[in-house]
Design goal:
Blueprint (H helix, E strand, L loop, with lengths): L1 E6 L3 E4 L4 H12 L4 E4 L10 H13 L8 E7 L6 H9 L3 E6 L15 H14 L3 E3 L13 H16 L5 E3 L5 H9 L4 E5 L2 H4 L3 H4 L16 H11 L6 E3 L8 H4 L14 H11 L6 H13 L7 E6 L9 E4 L2 E4 L9 E3 L1
Parallel strand pairs: 2-3, 3-4, 4-5, 5-6, 6-7, 7-8, 8-9
Antiparallel strand pairs: 1-10, 10-13, 11-12
Helix pairs in contact: 3-4
Bound molecules: N-carbamoyl-L-aspartate and zinc ion.
Length: 345
């Protein structure tokens, strides 16, 4: 029997939601992951340090007994964000990063940034104190094709922003294109990227071939195969600038299976199994630890977890539920469309 032992992984981009949904999904993350960067796109969003403190407590309140899990909080950047509040949150250790959603880019992002000049005081302060900015890298201009939004964002928003604030540390989240990979690889520094589990597994055909499949719809939307291959190469390369951010984003099934379905794929429960499969296919099992457990903490200036997990390769496929039941309703689990043989022991 083949086994693989690695430092306990962390998830550097996670949606836990709130209330009954939070209670229903938290265990799927805390079972395998020691820490996670918690996305602030609640309704209303987590904007102030006081919001983040209260949300963190709600997460800890529903953590399954015995699980050790550290929520690393983020603040949702608005045009009115207070530099002093942000700095206080960072210095106190409560807030790890600030999240930039261009207004209208994705789920619950209408309060995001339209005019970057208005967010400059906050961004300048972050550059000064070394606080990372997590970026949803898509433009929202209606003229731009949805499959081009990331590339256009890099050229028209991210690169100018980084030139304006060279000291700002930026995490380009859920990179989905070879343009994103290239941009990170060729940048001089202060830039890293997270890659999701599902973007290593599916391309855009999964959403559209043979019928419309809402459970493969997420933002940024999956791109063509050449992009998926570039992501796999980056993730399995060991390059410290790339690490795991699952972007596990639960929505109840009725909100995905309808005339205008929400974006988001739920992967917390089987991410480690999917990743082991991908890294095995790429002949890179020995680099899974770098991607899932080492590169992320190094980027955020944290120590890797002391604990380890052991993954086991079973001869027979490992069964994951098709859906999980939460107090908010059923949530469909990501189906990678191949049998999973690896599981966390
Ligand atoms: C996320 C969500 O549902 O909150 N959806 C998604 O498709 N990834 C938002 C986001 O990260 O874009
Ligand atoms: Zn997300």
């Amino acid at each position: 029997m083949q086994t693989l032992t690695l430092r306990r992984p962390d998830d550097w981009h996670l949606h836990l939601r709130d209330g009954a949904m939070l209670a229903g999904v938290i265990g799927d993350s805390s079972r395998h992951f020691a820490r996670a960067i918690i996305m602030p796109n609640l309704v209303p969003p987590v904007v102030t340090v006081a919001n983040a403190r209260a949300y963190r407590q709600r997460i800890l309140d529903v953590l399954p007994a015995g699980d050790r899990f550290e929520p690393l909080m983020t603040l949702y950047l608005t045009e009115g964000s207070s530099p002093d509040d942000i700095e206080e949150g960072f210095r106190s250790g409560l807030v790890t990063a600030v999240k930039l959603y261009p207004a209208g880019a994705t789920t619950n992002s209408h309060g995001g940034v339209r005019d970057f000049d208005k967010a400059m005081p906050a961004l300048e302060r972050m550059a000064k104190i070394g606080m990372p900015l997590c970026v949803h890298g898509e433009v929202t201009t209606p003229e731009v094709d949805i499959f081009d939004r990331e590339a256009v964002f890099i050229e028209t928003v991210l690169d100018p922003l980084r030139q304006r604030l060279p000291d700002l540390k930026v995490t380009m989240e859920h990179v989905t294109t070879s343009d994103g990979v290239d941009y990170i690889q060729t940048s001089a520094g202060n830039l890293a990227g997270t890659i999701t589990t599902h973007h290593l597994v599916i391309n855009r055909n999964a959403i559209l071939v043979g019928g419309i499949r809402p459970h493969y719809y997420c933002l940024p939307v999956a791109k063509r195969e050449s992009h998926r291959l570039a992501l796999r190469k980056a993730a399995t390369s060991g390059d410290p600038r790339f690490f795991l951010g699952t972007d596990s984003a639960p929505h109840v099934d009725p909100l995905k299976e309808c005339g205008c379905g929400c974006a988001g794929i739920y992967t917390s429960i089987n991410t480690m199994s999917c990743l082991a499969h991908v890294f095995e296919q790429e002949g890179a099992l020995d680099r899974l630890e770098a991607f899932a457990s080492l590169n992320g903490p190094a980027w955020y200036g944290l120590a890797p977890n002391e604990e380890t997990i052991t993954m086991v390769r079973r001869d027979r496929p490992v069964a994951f539920p098709e859906k999980i039941e939460t107090g908010a309703g059923p949530v469909t689990v990501f189906d990678p469309m191949f049998p999973l043989h690896w599981e966390v022991a």
